[in-house]
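A note from the maintainers: we've had questions about how concatenated examples are separated. There is no special marker in the raw files; a new sequence line simply starts the next protein. For clarity in this README we add a label.
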Amino acid sequence: MVDLTTKLGARTAERLKQEKIIWLTTVASSATPQPNPVWFFWDGKSFIIYTQPTSHKVKNIDHNPKVSLNFKADSKIGDVVGDVVVLTGEASLDKYPPSHDSRYLEKYRDEIPQIGLTPESFAKSYSVQIRITPSKLRGT
């Protein structure tokens, strides 16, 4: 578990509440990092992400559960570059979750129709839950 009471931790906690997208990096069997933007829900201890059963993320996590997560870095031209947040941890897969977390579906209520799905069809298509428990936090 990462400490969200430090200065960096407090900024991270705020971004966990506000951000809609986080970059999930898994590692392919060829040892090549595979970054992908994903929707997520932070439950206070873990990231909850849903994906399709045939996604490369599932294959990669089956092969190697070590992952990293990062937010888009907000940077300024000049002297100040900041708000870089990188979390690392281990992912686990639940290929048969009982149902999607209603908090997750509520968070993406407006985005789900934009990809041509309903909450019900989203839950059927994105039926594998990825749970990531972060162990390290670094950033600026």
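[label: protein 2]
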Amino acid sequence: MTERKPTGSFIDDLADIPGLNDLDRASTGIVPANPKKSRETFPCESCRGTGRYQGVRVHQPEEKCFACKGKGYFLKSYADRMAGKKKRAQAKMNRWVLAQTEFEKAHPGLIAKVRADLLPWNAFAASLIEQYDDKATLTEKQVAALQTQLDKNAERQAARAATKAAETQKLEANPVDPSAIRELFETAKSNGLKKPGLWFGDLKISEAPSHGRNAGALYVKQGGEYAGKIIGSTFHPAWGVPAMTILNSLLEIASNPAEVLRVKGKETGKCCCCGRELTDPESVANGIGPICATNWGL
């Protein structure tokens, strides 16, 4: 008896569906088109289309080109890529300017004042300014923090100004008469000394250059560091030095500089006119070397 093939079955229905058997590519030989491979490509300029980095590799473990990520090509020409990069940069700049304008409207003059008053010594403010330069805006908490820093700085400046004013008042109330010191300098210069200086222990007094803006002043150093200057009869201390202590020493020196020189020379064992160590017993007893004594009229 001949076996009948089923008709109208589910198998027949599947066979009638268009394209179902095309899933087997090997049997049909039909390969779907790849839209990416059909596009025009442009060789990478950095790796010359190889996809491999052409420079010397030091720490990077892979040989991929940094520009094209190892592909060796781009889907856009160099000119198009540069034009797109320029367009993106301009759009970023436009956003930055807009953000800056809005920030300045909300907080007028804040950034300029921070730059003037807090930079470069305030590291916290510098970090926020760096962020502002990148994004042209700050959060409200960051703005409040900067304002706090500005207020604290203003308080410090006011306190410093008050201290300076009180100190200046005291200094002006105690004038220094440098005439006896200047006579010693005139004697030394008449004896051929070009840049004379006098050491009174840790204090050194010298003349300001005649061609400078402080011509006529006497410079004062303490421990080798600039401590201030005498202009007219007023001592103008440098910031941070013990002004009143130095002033008291200057008043003592000005009253009898020759005697103070000898005393300090004996105490330190160094010539008060040239700063050299005294070795001769007579020089040690006098606190000054014989040559310096002649040059300075001592």
